[in-house]
Amino acid sequence: MSTVDGSSAPHSPAESSLATSIFSAKSPADSDGHAARAAKWRFATQVVAVDGSDNAHGASSVPIFQTATFKGMDGQYDYTRSGNPTRGGLESHLARIYSAHQAFALSTGMTCLDVILRLVKPGETVLAGDDLYGGTNRLLTYAKSHGGVDVRHADTTDVAALLPHLGEGNKVKMVLLESPTNPLLKVADIAEISAAVKKAAPDAIVVVDNTMLSPYLQRPLELGADIVYDSATKYLSGHHDVMAGIIATGNPQASKDIAWLINAMGSGLAPFDSFLLLRGVKTLALRMDKQQANAQIVANYLDALGFKVHYPGLKSHPKRDVHFKQASGAGAVLSVLTDDTQLSERVVSAARLWGVSVSFGAVNSLISMPCLMSHASIPAHIRAERGLREDLIRLCVGIEDPRDLLDDLEHALIASGAIVPNVDPTLLSSDKLAEVFRENPSQWGIERARYFRRPNVEALIDGVSRGLALDGVKTIDSDIVVSAPGKVILFGEHAVVHGVTAIATSLNLRCYGVLAPRTDGKVAITAPDLEAEHVWDISSLPWDLVPPREGSAADEKLDPVLLVALEKLVAEDKPTKTGASASIAFLYLFMAIARESTEAPATTLTVSANLPIGAGLGSSAAFSTCVASALLIAHERVHVPDAGSIDPSHVDDVDSWAFLAEKVLHGNPSGIDNAVAVRGGAVAFTRAIEGKEGGMDSIRGFDSIRLLLTNTRVPRDTKSLVAGVAAKRAAEPHVVDPVLGQIQDISDEARGLLDGSTKTSRNGFVSRLETLMRDNHGHLRTLGVSHPSLEAVVAATAAAPFNLTTKLTGAGGGGCAVTLVPDTFDDANLDQLLANLRGLGAEPYLTTLGGPGLGVHTRTPSDLSSTLVAAGPAGLASWADSLNAQWVHS
Ligand SMILES: Nc1ncnc2c1ncn2[C@@H]1O[C@H](COP(=O)(O)OP(=O)(O)OP(=O)(O)O)[C@@H](O)[C@H]1O
Ligand SMILES: C[C@@](O)(CCO)CC(=O)[O-]
């Protein structure tokens, strides 16, 4: 019997666990051979078959003997430090599942190591692996500094690296291994090392920390190790609700030594915690199967995305064969490198379902950064020496539905910028992917990864370092000053999107832009009319998403992936709706024209217009033309002559890029607005569509008519109005298609009248134009793009004594109306009409039609941005004139 002070050898049930196993207890005679059959039960059966016989009432689970002392002098127990029936029940059960001579339950895994290290005397050597849990490392360091123990580290993946330490003259008492290691999942050949140690240093013991796999997947005692320990806080308990450690010994001497120490130190597990652990361990096999299957899916997914993943379940693991020789599964811990510590931090902090926590082995999935958490106690330089990189993320996989685990992880990877969507026409549909999941979940992880890819990290890092080395940043020499006009569509708006000819002219209201150099590696847009001011680090833009392109003209289509990325980026600033669209269009062109961050000039674009914005007068095309031309000039792709006009091929390039920006702003524009903004004058424009040839002819007759523009001041959005007409056409082609045909007839007739090819009197000319305008407005109403505010203007102008004809212009839905004012219209009546319109809350413009398209200032003094802003919309025309008329045009 053990004594309270532990001075004699302890006697606990665990000591005789094999002899008193449940099988012999239940059937001492073993008359039916049950014990022999039960001894062959597989692990999953053994782990639930806990002996409940050792209690007076036949309780089917081991009761909690919550007592410190036991009465009497001759019973099996006297003092719980030395032995307790609950702990004893746990220990005898664990001895079976570890294939151990004896098993001991202690308060934590680190206590286990502390007890085991006491087997080493001062002056003796512990030879340990070089990728150890941080707490292990800390305790070894303490044993060295306070216990005089010589601690050495070696690469345990290579037996040859251990041998020099084991030879004659070395006092190796203990070889301490983890396999696989935490967190690098390095694998040591336990059988080979045990044999080598026995041969070269027969007195040394081999100790294995088996926490990463648990006895379900690996039993080192069967491989020749002398002592195994486990942090039972992990897989053995499985629920992170108890702290415990298990030591399992392979031979009587080790059992005797360990039992003596535990009793002497008093580190045995408390009764209630023993109960919890025994409860948890019964589901070990079940939990581990699911966790491991999930881990394989996660590893496959990350590996297929191109990350460096450490996991023995992957074919790429260098010691996969060794691992599966000694273990029956790959476990549920893996680690992954992102190549960027901050990126890793962002991934970890963006995860939600994956809990950010130290430890592992519980049913819940966890994510952590070992260098900041579990391994932070290892000095940084030693971590670096041992290949433990700061960007390493450890994933400890639980039993959740793997689809939710990947959803959450994927979300974290996307949100942190670690992966970007992959546009690939061969990707599986979501139905097909769901089928793959049902049939082969592990393959599903790989298929799912194909939807994404890693951005070009080198380019990003390169960009960042360039962003820091500001001296080398590209910019422009001096301000680039540009301007472009708005437009009025007289006939054919909306229909033009569907291939009908439209007739439009430029306006003397314009947008002005100044692109100014910066020296801080940033790019910015300032749009005082929208109260928008935004700035971005050039290096932080998603350069890897810029689609490849050849030639100087723009792509025909927007890249949806880049667009979505820019929408997200711009949204971070919480801009207004118009500020967001202007920023996205600007950044899209900024990136697509430069193609690479190294080519992008650090600049600020300041824009302001005396055009009403979002009123149907082409403010977006004027803005787009300013953006495109300023950037192309910055890249020296458009040359500005000292005098004369801009080269027509350069004008075409500006038009193609302005059209791309219009696509950002309008979704599906016809191209008429940018054609007019870039080239000026009046045009008959037909979009090339569905095999029909497009075309653009200039026409002259506009300058001979007087038009009144009235802004209803009802805001609207061209993009949604254009989309609305497309939707109506799809739903009611029998209504819309005939209307489109009639608008084509109207445009054809108007074109003949305006260019003079249809001969008629002046009165006949005006009255025919009025009829065409009235008809066209009626058709636009049928298309659903008029608005009560526009109808109010139509009515006010049609009323006596004015009797004028008005139609909406541009996208409608509010915005502007255009009224034909005959030559003979009385000036006093005009004043009255203007007053009436203002009375409606509208804003009438008497403005000049026609006029130049793209304008570029040739000798720009610097620092014009602030004067542009100071001029304000009303002062822009005189501001432009004050620049000494050194403008060239398209
Ligand atoms: N002065 C400006 N400063 C900055 N951005 C502008 C300016 N003018 C126009 N924009 C951009 O163009 C958008 C307005 O486009 P929208 O198509 O709604 O109006 P519009 O071009 O005036 O009308 P329409 O295309 O029917 O002629 C704004 O949201 C903004 O993104
Ligand atoms: C409504 C529309 O026809 C004119 C917008 O100014 C659209 C377009 O042509 O792009």
Overall geometry: elongated
Profile the largest sheet: 9 strands, mixed
Q: Strand percentage, roughly?
A: 15-25%
Q: How confident is the prediction overall: mean pLDDT? A: 90
Number of strands: 27
As a whole number of angstroms, the C-alpha radius of gyration is 40 Å
Distance between the termini: 106 Å
Q: Name the bound molecules.
A: adenosine-5'-triphosphate, (R)-mevalonate
User: Treating each run of at least 4 consecutive H or I residues as one helix, how many helices?
Assistant: 30
- Give the low-confidence spans: 1-28, 459-471
Describe it for me?
This protein has 890 residues and is an alpha+beta fold. It is built from 30 helices and 27 strands. Strands 15, 16, 17, 18, 19, 20, 21, 26 and 27 form a nine-stranded mixed sheet that branches. Strands 1-7-6-5-4-2-3 form a seven-stranded mixed sheet, with helices on both faces. A five-stranded mixed sheet has the order 8-9-12-11-10. Helix 21 (577-594) packs parallel to helix 22 and helix 25 packs across helix 26 (733-754). The longest helix is centred in the C-terminal third of the chain and has 22 residues, at 733-754. Adenosine-5'-triphosphate is lined by residues 511, 527, 529-530, 578, 581-582, 607-609, 613-620, 623, 665-666, 673, 717-718, 810-811.
